[in-house]
Amino acid sequence: MDLLTELLTTDFRPLDRKAADLYLGAVAQVKPDALTLPTPCPDWTLHGLLRHQVSQDEGFAAAAQGDGGRLAVWRGGDLGDDPYAAAKASLDLVTRAFAGVALDAELVLPEIRDGGAFPTSLAISFHFVDLVVHAWDVAAAIGAPWEPSDELVAASLKVAAIVPADGRGPGDSFAPSVPSADGATPGNHLLALLGRDPAWR
Known about the structure:
Elements: H1 3-8, H2 13-27, H3 46-64, H4 83-99, E1 106-108, E2 117-119, H5 120-142, H6 150-160, H7 186-193
Antiparallel strand pairs: 1-2
Helix pairs in contact: 2-4, 2-5, 3-4, 3-5, 5-6, 6-7
GO molecular function: metal ion binding
Domain Mycothiol-dependent maleylpyruvate isomerase metal-binding: 21-139
Pfam families: MDMPI_N (PF11716)
């Protein structure tokens, strides 16, 4: 079975929920005075990164409900006074939306390439890998450990292998790939594939 066929026939919803737990575990450690810290994503402070993920959750939820075509639904994330509560609420929202969509449906994702519809399984895999890698971004920003399971890393590597090289840059979730160090762990290889320097501090 080729990689794309494998991804198209995988139900990523259980993995997405595990990735959400990984991400929330990192967000739970963020103190209010840390929100202005830089992150491995040069255009985003920690506040900006957390807001980005809330916006993505809301956008993917809208897409699963047939309303993903409007860019506004991907841009309205609000952390309010409690970033953790906002992160949990948006992840609960998207988890419920994913649970209610058929895997043979198509989700409109206007921010990916030139927009258009993607099979549900592939769309959820994009959300999944976002969470795994943004969990590292948060953890790196605050000096906390990032300890995804082998299962999450292995699945993320498969998704990362199909992330297009174009559309990566300032303001995007992923940057151009960087070389992996000799003997890099699978987790560090994943980070490098998606434009992160695992040594960033």
